[in-house]
Amino acid sequence: MKRVAIYLRVSTSKQDTENQLRELSAVADRSGWEIWKVYEDAGISGAKGRDKRPGLDAMLKAVNAREFDMVAAWSVDRLGRSLTDLLSILQSLHEKGVDLFLHQQGLDTSTTAGKAMFQMLGVFAEFERGIIRERVNAGLARARAKGTKLGRRRTDAAVEARILELKASGDGILKIGRKLGIGTSVVQRVFKQGPLPT
User: Fold this and answer.
1) CB 80: neighbour CB atoms within 10 A?
2) Which of 11, 25, 75, 92 is the catalytic position?
């Protein structure tokens, strides 16, 4: 008998997960699945990450422990709103050999058609990453063409000079940062850059 974890989520406190649970329980009953555990995130947006969704987090930890064979959810948007988040969840399931059933989409990754759909999601997620990468590169090229200097700017010359003076007198990174009221990352960067060109 297939052990199934049910994942339920609603976005607002005015909604409840009762309908989702009733439908998924009926599917489990018809399919001969054993409901192993029910995980729930009530009143939490699907746009929030795993760290803000305790039900999803607990379920994915149980996936890692291989406590069940399949996750059943009402719809794809119950798991996540972005394709990359969804793919990350699907990848976690796939790596542990845990299947996914999505009631509204009729997706069951334990079937041949479901496995093919899973692979297509991977293709679309890679496509989305490629588009984002192209947009970033085009934006950087446009900024360069307009004469914008990219990268980190040097710290104010007077501050850099003071950092180097304190370093020469034997002060460490933390002490210099405290004396000048600046972050240690700034001090480290000035150390690496060396003296200002004269």
Assistant:
1) 22
2) 11
Cα separation of 166 and 172, whole Å? 8
Q: Are 9 and 44 in contact (CB under 8 A)?
A: yes
Structure-derived torsion over alpha carbons of residues 129, 10, 94, 68, reported in degrees to the nearest 10:
170
pLDDT tens digits, 152-180:
666 778 888 888 889 888 888 889 988 88
Tokens of 142: 């446009």
| pLDDT for res 198 | 53
Name the helix (H) or strand (E) containing 62: helix 54-64
Instruction: Identify whether the C-beta of residue 90 lies closer than 8 Å to the C-beta of residue 102.
Output: no
What global pTM score does this model have? Answer: 0.60
Report residue 90 as tokens.
């699907």
Q: Residue 59 has what pLDDT?
A: 94
Note the pLDDT tens digit of each residue in 17-50: 899 999 999 999 999 999 999 999 988 877 777 7
Q: CA 103 to CA 175: how far, in whole Å?
A: 60
Residue 17, phi then psi, degrees to nearest 5: -95, 10
Give catalytic status of residue 92 as yes or no.
Answer: no
Rounded to an integer, what distance in angstroms lies between the CA atom of residue 95 and that of residue 36?
Answer: 20
Handedness of CA 55, 61, 63, 66 (dihedral sign): negative
Supply φ then ψ for residue 138, to 5 degrees. -65, -40
Q: How many CB atoms lie within 10 A of CB 190?
A: 23
